[in-house]
Amino acid sequence: MIDIIYADNAATTKLSRAALDVMMPYLEHAYGNPSSLHRPGQIARRALDDARNDIADILNCVPQEITFTSGGTEANNQAILTAVSDQKNHGKHHVVSTAFEHHSVLHMLKKLERSGFEVTLLDIPEDGIIHPQQVAAAVRDDTCLVSVMHANNEIGSIQPIDEIGQLCREKGILFHTDAVQSAGHLPIDLKKQPIDLLSLSAHKFHGPKGTGILYAKRGIHPANLLEGGEQERGYRSGTENVAAIAGMAAALKEANRNMEANTARTVLLRDLLIAGLETIPHSILNGSKEDRLPGNVNFCFEGIEGETLLLLLDQKGICASSGSACSAGSLNASHVLLALGRPRELAFGSLRLTINEENTKEDIDQIINAVTEGVARLRKSSPIWRDRLSGRREFYL
Ligand SMILES: *Cc1c(COP(=O)(O)O)cnc(C)c1O
What we know:
Elements: E1 5-6, H1 17-28, H2 39-59, E2 66-69, H3 72-85, E3 94-98, H4 103-114, E4 118-122, H5 132-138, E5 143-147, H6 161-171, E6 174-178, E7 197-201, E8 212-216, H7 242-257, H8 259-278, E9 283-285, E10 296-301, H9 306-315, E11 318-319, E12 325-327, E13 330-332, H10 335-339, H11 344-348, E14 350-354, H12 361-380, H13 383-389
Parallel strand pairs: 1-11, 3-4, 3-5, 5-6, 6-7
Antiparallel strand pairs: 2-8, 7-8, 9-10, 10-14, 12-13
Helix pairs in contact: 1-7, 2-7, 3-4, 8-12, 9-12
The structure holds pyridoxal-5'-phosphate.
């Protein structure tokens, strides 16, 4: 392996040693199908039961409320489909969500619109935090679902889901939260918190890729996306990914156990990183400084392209991400930054660094130096930047 500084934990995380150790036996020897009646099958069945019990303990819910899925995308799709096909919501055709949800929520809602549902996407305030009042103003008599993420994956802003959930409960509206980014970083207590549906993904908390959880409160029956066998009580057909599910439970346990210590350490590093990058002229931090995931840093730098900056950083072994994505030759600005009100040109110049407790003070210093140098270099070769300096164009920042 090359020597890298990994600062892209919102995209995915390293599999933890504890998770790998728990997974190995199921990959090597204990390969039974949990639906089989023989002993190897029953060993696999026990692994599933143990994982479900452990996860239910951590989230403070009952095991029957947990359905294993192939990840956060599937859990989000299934949560939305469940809410809109719930018997109790018959005849309700309105959904409230936000403009900065993950695409697995937004694209599913687009699909609903094509089949006759009406969707209200809330605007994002400057600090990246939805106000419960916005939700209160948007819900109607025919609203069957409110879906607001726990923490945003690009700008890390933490949403007031308890207040929003409470408001939904009082009105008899189902509340879903995409907790993929917060799991393992923020406490979740499903007995105390007014949440009906919740999505998790193992690979965002040092578990394996391709596995996740849909929590559906007792009395809500998940609508199945896949037709087939009776796995997961018929809510999710297909032979279970036993090793991954066992690994997910181990990873969540570990993350939960170390949450306080990890947060304390990561927040210190994050704030150093923010302070260092703020000294770059014509830059701005995206999202709230206070209500922010411990490891999230997201900046716009005027006059550069985020993708080019990523390549410069990659040459120095620094792994980061930019909200913009190049698809089919055209550059798309991040829908999150646009929702935040950043002009398109600024949104193109964004950089997301998502660190964790394994990063060091030296990593942070190296990142600050590399970004400062990279931004200066890109600006020097930009004709638009020259126009700004000469006053032919105005600065945004
Ligand atoms: C990564 C992510 C997802 C998708 O999870 P997968 O397991 O990769 O499908 C959904 N929501 C958020 C907020 C995410 O960060």
